[in-house]
Write a structure and sequence with these properties.
The complex is a heterodimer of chains A (269) and B (368).
Chain A: H1 2-34, H2 45-52, H3 56-87, H4 91-99, H5 106-117, H6 122-129, H7 141-166, H8 169-177, H9 182-193, H10 195-210, H11 214-218, H12 227-237, H13 241-261
Chain B: H1 4-29, E1 41-47, H2 53-63, E2 66-72, H3 75-84, E3 91-92, H4 96-104, E4 138-151, E5 175-178, H5 181-192, H6 201-214, E6 218-222, H7 225-231, E7 237-241, H8 242-251, E8 255-258, E9 265-272, H9 280-291, H10 293-303, H11 318-321, H12 330-333, E10 337-338, H13 344-365
Parallel strand pairs in B: 1-2, 1-3, 5-6, 5-7, 9-10
Antiparallel strand pairs in B: 4-7, 4-8, 4-9
Helix pairs in contact in B: 5-6, 5-13, 6-13, 7-8
The chains are: A mainly alpha (269), B alpha/beta (368).
Protein name (chain B): Spermidine/putrescine-binding periplasmic protein
Keywords (chain B): Membrane, Periplasm, Signal, Transmembrane, Transmembrane helix, Transport
Pfam families (chain B): SBP_bac_8
């Protein structure tokens, strides 16, 4: 018994040191920075400015708004896709095709979109051939959301697919045998039984979407500002680490709220 | 346990092989620097791709100093690295405002003019500026100005001969701006006729409002992407550095560059010696080498920015020196202003205005 606890403690060392060095210390530093000013005095002024200035609060709402849209669109695509995938014969292959793009660096994919969406890019060439003329596809809100959805899609689809896949096929058969329409099976069986996958999908998409910053510059042409881009600017350009940390703390808080509302309720089994 | 031991030992073996292999590759690719003592080594810290590599070889051949050449990609990176003090560079290349900031912070050595030969080769209009009075700490290395490039199939020069004309509604959703606190606000400052170094609160507030009013015309606030966008015809009008404009013009002859009548800001990148330099003798040797007109000309031909070395111009092809994009006539520069450093307080204030203005424009744009 004693040996067992000792072994446990021993194996916990990597995890605990990781936690300390890369989670606890950085968050403590963020909190410290957010509560001090350039002179190093303790103050709540940064948070006061966040709430009162006419920049940060609207920016925060804006970020949440974009993140919600991105999450909603990825869900609308992912749920039916995951359902269909789980019915297919070679599902591992189809799933692989969706996972494959995540092996490519995000920055590379974003640059690829710069080319695709440009005036001489493939999409505009297609438009022109079909007689719609060419359009400015880069540097607007739609292109930003489109590329963000593309990048986040696999992270919504995978957890939903996994939880749909776990559903016992006999339950679905039973529902059909008992005369339920496919729509009812979907809404009353598949959806509730895959709710945990949906929740983790939402977590995996909504939270990163709140702080997208590279896309706002490359695809949004800096005409889309999120809390993430504000943090980047404060740390790199304006070098106001205190305000940057304050925004980061607000973001962590927003993430905690999201986690709370999408937590797994009621243990199965 | 039986399986984990071979697994872990396998990982260790792979790691060891990788490390050894990497060392071996490094060995065969890079002959060790012969210089036995540090007196024969010169450490340079410069912007990426900002010197003709052939000149470094020539320098070593002429003077015997081995060159260690490192590069950075932003003034912030340069400042941080020199400030930390872990490295000892002998020659660095800060932009004008950083010269002044680093001088205030006591990071730059005062230049000893008895050791410098060729100072008279430099263009007078770039010397003795406020960021470094009497060039006590720095000498210009390259310079440039900011103007507007446009596609002449879409717009005409007369629509752009003043900075204020950028606010014309005909440019709705067309304009590319340079991403950076001063660079982004500069058109608004010039349209209002204010100094590029203003510290007046009321003026800064007006600059903010003026910039926000430009919002509907802004297509994007970008850095290097604007070159490709202009070349492809994806964008038709962009505020830009003249050196970047030349790159675009070379690739797309329909793009033209002009400096509005109020003039544009002048920037310089400068040679300076940090206080903690290891080998000041080598640093002076290098500065003198670069002040040599023939070397400066060779460098300007490679880098394709404007050389501050007046004496070098005669060694450059006429196609370069007569190019009004790279060497604008003095008449166009008479109104030009240099960026100066400001007290830290104003530096931060500009940054705040920059961030707020950027956000305001993005929020005003809304979701269409």
């Amino acid at each position: 018994m004693k040996d067992n606890t000792r072994a446990k403690a021993f194996f916990a060392i990597p995890y605990i040191s990781w936690l300390a060095v890369f989670v606890i210390v950085p968050i403590a530093l963020l909190v410290y920075q957010s509560l001090t000013n350039a002179q190093g005095n303790l103050t709540l002024a940064n948070f006061h400015e966040f709430i009162t200035s006419d920049v940060y609060l609207p920016m925060a709402f804006n970020s949440v708004f974009y993140a919600l849209i991105i999450t909603a669109i990825t869900f609308v695509i992912s749920f039916p896709a995951a359902y269909v995938l789980s019915r297919l014969k070679h599902r591992q292959l189809w799933l692989m095709l969706i996972i494959l793009p995540t092996w490519i660096n995000v920055l590379l994919k974003t640059y690829a979109f710069l080319g695709l969406l440009s005036k001489s890019g493939l999409i505009n060439q297609l438009f022109a051939t079909l007689g719609f003329g060419t359009h400015n596809l880069l540097f607007n809100h739609v292109s930003f959301i489109f590329v963000a959805v593309y990048l986040e899609l696999p992270f919504m689809l995978l957890p939903i697919y996994n939880s749909i896949n776990e559903i016992d096929p006999d339950i679905l058969k039973a529902s059909r045998d008992l005369g339920a329409k496919p729509v009812n099976t979907l809404t009353q069986l598949v959806f509730p039984l895959s709710i945990n996958g949906i929740k983790s999908g939402i977590q995996a998409v909504f939270i990163p979407s709140l702080s997208l910053f590279m896309l706002t510059t490359l695809i949004g042409g800096n005409k889309v500002m999120t809390l993430g881009s504000a943090i980047e600017l404060h740390f790199i350009v304006t070098q106001n680490w205190h305000m940057g940390s304050t925004i980061a703390i607000v973001l962590i808080f927003a993430m905690a709220v999201t986690m709370y509302f999408t937590r797994e309720r009621g243990k199965r089994k | 346990m039986k399986k984990i031991v071979p697994f872990v030992s396998m990982m260790i073996v792979v790691l060891v092989v990788l490390v050894l292999g990497q060392n071996w590759l490094a060995q065969i690719n890079k002959p060790p620097i012969k210089a036995a003592n540090t007196n024969q080594v010169l450490n340079i810290y410069n912007w990426g791709d900002y010197i003709d590599p052939a000149l470094l070889a020539k320098f070593t051949k002429e003077t015997g100093y081995q060159v260690n050449y490192d590069t950075f990609d932003s003034n912030q990176a340069l400042e941080t690295k020199v400030k930390q003090g872990g490295t000892h560079y002998d020659v660095i290349f800060p932009s004008e405002y950083l010269v002044s900031k680093m001088t205030q912070e006591g990071l730059l050595a005062k230049l000893d003019y008895s050791k410098i030969h060729g100072f008279d080769n430099l263009s007078k209009h770039l010397l003795n500026q406020k960021y470094d009075p009497h060039n006590e700490h720095s000498l210009p290395y390259f310079w440039g100005t900011t103007g507007i490039m446009y596609n002449d199939q879409v717009f005409h020069a007369s629509q752009l001969d003043s900075w204020g004309k950028l606010w014309n509604p005909i440019f709705k959703d067309q304009l590319l701006l340079i991403d950076g606190p001063r660079e982004m606000l500069q058109p608004a400052m010039q349209a209002l006729g204010y100094s590029l170094n203003t510290e007046n609160q009321a003026e800064i507030k007006q600059i903010f409002n003026k910039f926000v009013a430009l919002g509907p015309n802004i297509r994007g606030i970008v850095t290097d992407e604007k070159k490709q966008l202009m070349i492809n015809g994806d964008a038709n009008i962009s505020v830009t550095y003249n050196g970047d404009a030349q790159v675009v013009i070379d690739a797309n002859p329909h793009v033209k560059f002009l400096i509005p009548k109020e003039g544009g800001p002048i920037w310089t990148d400068n040679m300076a010696i940090p206080k903690n330099a290891n080998n000041k003798k080598a640093a002076y040797a290098f500065i003198n080498f670069m002040l040599n007109p023939k070397n400066a000309a060779q460098n300007a031909e490679y880098v394709a920015y404007s050389s501050p070395n007046q004496a070098a111009l005669k060694y450059l092809p006429k196609s370069i020196t007569h190019n009004p994009v790279l060497y604008p006539p003095m008449s166009e520069l008479k109104n030009a202003q240099h960026y100066n450093n400001q007290p830290l307080r104003y530096f931060n204030e500009y940054n705040e205005v920059y961030l707020e203005a950027k956000t305001k424009v993005s929020l005003d744009g809304g979701l269409k």
